[in-house]
Amino acid sequence: MKLVFATHNPNKVLEIQKMLPGGIELLSLDDIGCSEPIPETETTLEGNARLKAKYVRERYGYDCFADDTGLEVAALGGAPGVFSARYAGPRADAVANMRKLLAEMAGCDDRRARFRTAIALSLDGEYHFFEGEVTGEILWEPKGDQGFGYDPIFMPAGSGRSFAEFPLADKNRISHRGKAFRALESFLKGRV
Description:
Blueprint lengths: L1 E4 L4 H10 L5 E3 L17 H16 L3 E10 L20 H12 L6 E12 L2 E13 L15 E3 L11 H7 L1 H14 L3
Parallel strand pairs: 1-2, 1-3
Antiparallel strand pairs: 3-4, 4-5, 5-6
Helix pairs in contact: 4-5
């Protein structure tokens, strides 16, 4: 079975390929010749993931799964949410996004937050959805040098350290993304 993971990142493809059952050949967007940006215009993580999977299915004819991840901060009404990757603007990087979030949280004692990953799988003309979530809080300042994105300012509940202070393998065991991909893996085991 050939299955497209809607990403251009070869490292993500290799990482997920190791999780999937044998008999699945995982392809990236580059592998199928998809170089155009796929629109992410929905208002939910699930909607954006489905939009990307549907785009690949309709334009390239492959079964596909796509993910979308967001950081949702209680004191900010769930923001940045679907705008997490471009919170400080369309060309902003992770540092600018963190700075903006920390500035908006200045003086706020309610630091509750959660990371969510939604995966949409388009398989044999049907859509299936998987989700992973981890709750925690926003730190007052960045800590650690591992991970990416908001990892230096997000501390999972009960851990006592930021995601950026976890070795990658440990982070993947408890992270939102790891939970969502394990749910996908479990579902696919029954299909191959």
